[in-house]
Amino acid sequence: MFTDSGTWEGIVANDGRSATVIAYLLLMSADRTSVSVTTTGFYRIRAVKQETGMWQIDHLFARLDARF
What's the gap between Cα 13 and its chain centre? Predict the structure, then answer.
């Protein structure tokens, strides 16, 4: 859940009752000798504001470059 504790630059739409956020992912893996990229991608999150003032995730969409 989201709270009203601040703003975030990833918000792409906000009408006061719902908001859409884009978040980017860079997932990496490491062993004793190397670090490598496992996958990259993004999340699109739609949240709706509840009567209590808390934000709740309504829909979560993920698009990744590679399966892992």
Answer: 14
